[in-house]
Amino acid sequence: MSPVIATPVTSAARDTCDAGGVLSRVGEKWSVLILALVADREYGFNELDRAVEGLSRRILTRTLRHLEYDGLISRTATEQRTTYRITDLGRSLLPLVMALGQWAVDHAAEMAAARARFTDPDAVIPQA
């Protein structure tokens, strides 16, 4: 039994878990990338649109709204342009997410080997 997760895990417990919302947000395809970009400097909407290949304007808008809703970025609108920047809350989250990303890079070969063993248990996997 986990010291953090009480069992059985009920639907109500999952729905009220504070970690679930954060993990959902950082697990989205574009959220962390946008958060990392606006951590360096303020970006306008069109700049962000040009900065990330393959991200549609519709999904960019949705991602920015979600990040703003969660308090991770701030939005400033003037007559000339709308800009986005990271908040203190977002800045406090970023190192944790970046550490997870670094872990993924550091262990990519091990995970690839595990996947290969899973799909073909007889395969000989060279050690990295």
Write up this protein.
A hairpin with a 4-residue loop joins strand 2 and strand 3. The mean pLDDT is 89. The protein has a three-stranded antiparallel sheet with strand order 1-3-2. With 128 residues, the chain is mainly α. The protein is extended, with a radius of gyration of 19 Å.
Q: Helix tally?
A: 7
Note the main sheet: 3 strands, antiparallel
Total beta strands: 3
Shape field: extended
Protein structure class: mainly alpha
Strand order of the largest sheet: 1-3-2
Query: How confident is the prediction overall: mean pLDDT?
Result: 89
Q: Give the amount of beta strand, in percent.
A: 5-15%
Q: What proportion of the residues is helical, as a percent range?
A: 55-70%
- The SSE string, one letter per element, is HHHEHHEEHH
How far the N terminus sits from the C terminus, by CA atoms, comes to 33 Å
Radius of gyration: 19 Å
Low-pLDDT runs: none
What's the structural blueprint in terms of helices and strands?
Elements: H1 11-16, H2 18-27, H3 31-40, E1 43-44, H4 45-51, H5 57-69, E2 73-77, E3 82-86, H6 88-106, H7 108-119
Antiparallel strand pairs: 1-3, 2-3
